[in-house]
Structure formats: C-alpha cells, structure tokens
Amino acid sequence: VQEIIRVKTAAGPEYPVLCGTDVCPMLGQIWRPHWRQAAIIGDQNTSKLFAQPLAEALRSQCERVVQLSFPAGELHKTRATKEELENALLETGFDRASCVVGVGGGIALDVAGYVAATYLRGVAHVNIATSLLAQVDAAVGGKTGVNTPYGKNLIGAFHQPRAVLIDIAALSSLPEVELRLGLAEAIKHAVLADEELFNALESWAASDAGPIPPEHLVARCVEIKAEVVMRDERELAYRQVLNFGHTVAHALESASDHRVPHGEAVASGMVVEARLAERLCGFPPSASNRLVALLRQLELPTEPAVSFAEAAPLLGHDKKTRQGVIHCALPERIGQMHANDGRWSVPVELELLEQLWGNS
Ligand SMILES: NC(=O)c1ccc[n+]([C@@H]2O[C@H](COP(=O)([O-])OP(=O)(O)OC[C@H]3O[C@@H](n4cnc5c(N)ncnc54)[C@H](O)[C@@H]3O)[C@@H](O)[C@H]2O)c1
Fold this sequence. Notes:
two-stranded antiparallel ribbon
C-alpha cells in the first residue's frame, strides 16, 4: 500500500489517499472505532463486483453493515436516487455514528458523498475508487452532487472524504472504453499543471504497454488534483483550473441527455477550449496540435458530438457563469493555466465559441 498524499482541508481533518491492489486491508487500516454502522453505496455494477468482500471486512469492526445500490449511469445521478438511498438509511436507523463507504466510479462516489454530506446534517464518508476516472480525479477533493435537467452537478455540497482508497486491481474488470474515458481527465491534469506528465502520457500512449496506465502516472494525477484542492478547497478562484474543458463538456453532456459520456465530453471540450486559449491566452497552436494528437492516439474524440446550436442554451448553466457571461479556465501553455490576475478563468463571447466549435 502506498500513501500518495495527505490532503489537508480547511473545514475538516486531513485525509490520506492510499493506493494498492488489496482494498479490504486498506479499509481496515483507516477505519475508526466510532464508525459503528457502515453503508456501502455503489452503482449496480460496482456493488455486484466489490461490495460483498468490503461488507465482510467491515463486519468485524461495525455493529451494522448495509449494502445499497442504484442503477448505473448519469441518468440515475439524481436527487431521486439520493432520496431513495437516504430513505433506506433512515429505515435502517443509521445514526451519526455511521460512515458511508462509496465504491465505484465518479457517479457512485459523487452520489454516495452527497448522501453523506446531508444525512443527519453530515456523516463521515470514505471513497473507494474503482474507475480510472474516479482514481485520477473524482475521488479526491470533496465535490459531491447530482445532475438536474438544467445541467450537470448543479446541486451538491463540498464534503471531504475521511480517506480515499484507490483500488488498482479493480481496473482489470473496467471496460477498456472506460479506461480511455479516465485518461481524458489525466490529460487535463497534465495540461493544467505538469508538462512532464504530458510527455509521459504521450510516450505511454505511443508504446504498446497495454490499456492500463502505469501506477506512477495515476499517482501523479492524484497529487495534482490534491494540490489544487488544498490551494482552493471551495473553488473561490484557483480550483477552477480543474475545469479546463469542462464548460464545453458539461453542455455536451446535458444537451445529449448524457449519451455523451463525461470523459468523451471532456476530451472534445478540451480541444474547443484549447482553440479558445490560442485566441485569448496565447496558448501555442502547436500545443493544441499535441493535445489533439494525444487524444486521437487514445481514441478519444476531438470534436464535439453535439452541434453548437444544440449546446448553446446549456453553456450558460455552468457554475462559472457570472452575470450571464460564460467563463472558461484556459491554459497559456502545457503545464500552466492562465491566471487572469488571480481570477483563473476568462470571459468568453458566445460568437467566438461558435466560430471555434467545429473548427477543431
Ligand atoms: N467530484 C469530482 O470532483 C468529479 C471529478 C470528475 C468527474 N466527476 C464525475 O464523475 C462522473 C464520471 O465518472 P466515471 O467515468 O467513473 O463514470 P461511472 O461512475 O459511471 O463509471 C463508469 C462505468 O464503469 C463501471 N465501473 C466502475 N468501476 C468498475 C470496475 N472496476 N469494473 C467494472 N466496471 C466498473 C460503472 O458501473 C459505470 O458503468 C461524472 O458524473 C462526473 O461529473 C466528479
């Protein structure tokens, strides 16, 4: 077991991010004696694959262990799903001595974390990340929430987990397409903070080392995510850098009724926003070309799957929108985001976005 980093938070205690191939002993290691009830929450896939051994491992430490699941997919990342899970916990009589154990990809962890954030005004939760996307991004940082018909992740809470466990062994059952989707967020981390990581991803993608990225690259992504979060936990400004590609991505996801998966939306969203960055922040065209080439190598899309006309009404439903003006977090080179005098996002005219939309 490797401890990648300890995340220090303003609101709560610091927490470890552990990475290993045998997750049950890791869970035992971080479990607190006062967590007497455990609710293991996953989607139906991850619950089936992973919940049983976790429940068995926790039975010796807890008075009560329940397993709860909901159907997989963005269409179920909703307030209705959260309510069902909450009702099940209330029915079972879970009190404040409970800990929610989220197990799965970004969807399961966002939902489980949000349940923990508001159950009895907040109980502890632990994230066990089983998709690559959750490992390199979603599991760390304390953003929890659900989708609405008006846009993605618009209802939620900041609620830091008490530990994050990255289950590397789980990646062997993850469909290859999901591995690729996770790589989109890894590339994002490289663009926003680390050119060396970008180079390493390029070399790895060009080699035939198999579809699972090496552990040290996953660990580097976790560090980047944690460092951003520690600098600006509540997204007052700097944390927006994690949103590179996401202003466009969230509109693509919502406009397609979530037929476009998050990783694909982020991939093509980064390309559109890289073109914006060329115009607005001096991002070199050669860097955009490298980004496109890397995405292609990894069979990720480089053009939006939804027309500008369809996506336009949803572009403004973004948490960065201010006084009706869309904002994007943009890079000025690979490894460095544009600070814009400490605002870390720049206003973007819809006309310019339209012009660059299919132009990639
Ligand atoms: N909270 C954050 O900071 C943050 C950051 C990035 C993304 N997100 C959110 O994460 C979500 C996307 O996450 P995702 O790509 O992990 O999607 P996901 O949670 O839907 O997981 C992808 C699919 O893989 C399955 N799966 C997961 N692990 C598996 C395994 N080991 N073996 C077999 N199947 C497995 C899941 O059941 C699902 O069908 C989006 O909703 C996005 O908004 C949140």
